[in-house]
Amino acid sequence: MSQVHKVRRAGDRMPLIAAATGEQPSRRPVWFMRQAGRSLPEYREIRVDRGMLESCFDPELVCEITMQPVRRHDTDGAILFSDIVVPLRAAGVDLDIVAGTGPVIAEPVRTAADVAALPRLERDEVGAVTSAISMILGELPDSVALIGFAGAPFTLASYLIEGGPSRTYERTKTMMRADPELWNQLMGKLTDITITSLQAQLDAGVDAVQLFDSWAGALSVADYQAYVAPHSSRVMAEIADYGVPRIHFGVGTGELLTAMTQVGADVIGVDWRVPLDVAAHRVGYGVAVQGNLDPTVLMAGDAVMERELRRVLGEGERAVAAGALGHIVNLGHGVLPNTDAEAVTRAVELIHTL
Ligand code: CP3
């Protein structure tokens, strides 16, 4: 644990960490997935002449972009500016992040030889990320939690196998079913990369981590249990000793919430489809809940925004009254690039005052 981290911890308990661990937060904690990104004019400006991946390996830039939404919106969490494919790139996988598309893999991983050739991630290869974390911890107010993250093995596998974003995940699901042994080899290697990346971030001092299994909602519960849960469980188990809240999130995962909690989550992330009190009931309580605001609510004007915020806050309160450990306010997925940054600031203000 870094020196900086100990000093931060000695101060007031962070509202976000309190809510994640069943303590009473001093104010209602809020952060937004993709809060650091194209909705911010200062982000667009700083990124004009720099590529996405290049930016992720520049510690000063990572620190600056991570801080931007905290300064502007007064959120209770800072999410490390990076991407789920950064550890793969760091390990040596040839890929790019294409604006408007997402990650694109130069040579998709489809055969036994491809899986065998997938490199391991060494700690020093994510040195830029851990340097950025030290810098951020030096700047972040004591009350604001720094959230590290990684892509879950399934979501990473889907990009590697498909070669980029997919609607059907057909090659991914085909490998999973047709060659479970190869699938498990690939998932095992990705699990190792994810663990190395998260442990590096935790050693550098992040206060919480979020495992993004963004596309797990493409699977049935039975397939998730058979092909994904053992690997995601290993990720969660290998970071459990840090005693830092582990958030687990995916889109369209209403049917998977229980399984995604059982792999070892302390906080379950919920998309806009399932109300938080319903989600808390589904997972059997005992964990904190996060999310559920539809990202487009931030675009619909203040009256709609206030109505929706009141709804989510009410459902969060009901979830906690019924046995959820706490409630962290967030969206059901990321801030959309066309969102007015000032609406986001007003949302945070409302969440802190309502
Ligand atoms: O503010 C934050 O949330 C921190 C940064 C963050 C990014 N990506 C920055 C980014 C985080 C946490 C991620 C995770 C990520 N990346 C996920 C999981 C979260 C989710 O959205 O479900 C996934 C699936 C990816 C893969 C990826 N990278 C996608 C789908 C895209 C969007 C493509 C596009 O242009 O719309 C990216 C690129 C990306 N990652 C951007 C940002 C700010 C946009 C690129 C840019 O600004 O040029």
UniProtKB/TrEMBL annotation:
It is an enzyme of class 4 (lyase). Residues 29-38, 147-163 form the Uroporphyrinogen decarboxylase (URO-D) domain. Pathway: Porphyrin-containing compound metabolism; protoporphyrin-IX biosynthesis; coproporphyrinogen-III from 5-aminolevulinate: step 4/4. Substrate binds at residues 34-38, 83, 159, 214, 333. SUPFAM superfamilies: UROD/MetE-like. The record marks 83 as: Transition state stabilizer. Pfam families: URO-D (PF01208). The keyword Coiled coil does not apply. It is found in: Cytoplasm. NCBIfam families: hemE. Catalyzes the decarboxylation of four acetate groups of uroporphyrinogen-III to yield coproporphyrinogen-III. This is Uroporphyrinogen decarboxylase. The gene is hemE.
